[in-house]
Records
---
Amino acid sequence: MRFHYTFQKVVDLKGNERTQAEWMLSSALGELQAQEKSLDELLSQRYEMVLALQSAAQQATPMAKIREMQDYVEYLDSCIARKHSDINLAHQEVQHKQDQLNTKMLDEKVWLKAKDKAQAIFQHNMNLREQNELDEMATVRFAMKSL
């Protein structure tokens, strides 16, 4: 006789939910990395623009051009501030997805433990049944010898 767990479909569902939560966390981490890379690019652009602005200020550059460069640096500063906000949101999303994954993993673990317990009980009952059959066979043999 083979072990058949009555709630196997629930166990499978919990495993699938955990896998989906892992994918969602992976996606959130990918988004966070993309936001951080974008921030690095903005910071690099700002650094280059500040160097260009300093160079232009040392040379005979028209004031309109310098003002245009300063405006662009201010624009980059605002983009960087927004990007920091986006990164904070992405961090919160990663934390939320991590919490969801932990919940799903705990839920799956509970069901797997229940399955293991049911399987252990089944195995114990099978061992008892087998032992009873062996005892019965021994009793019958002993009875046959005594006749």
---
Amino acid sequence: MYENKVVRIKLKHGIVEMKPEQDYQEVIDKYTKEGWRFVQIFAPPIVGNGYATFYDLIFEKVKNV
């Protein structure tokens, strides 16, 4: 059996570009070192302004029973 973890990375929108509040590669490195396996990055449907407001990083690891 697996347990899952979802880490939300909020995006800041500037005039020309959007920037994540955290470096997602550093977040992935952090959790994989803790034994989590990176599964997927999920971007939600685009909102009215034409931009996503966050990314979700999805991790899993074997659950200790």
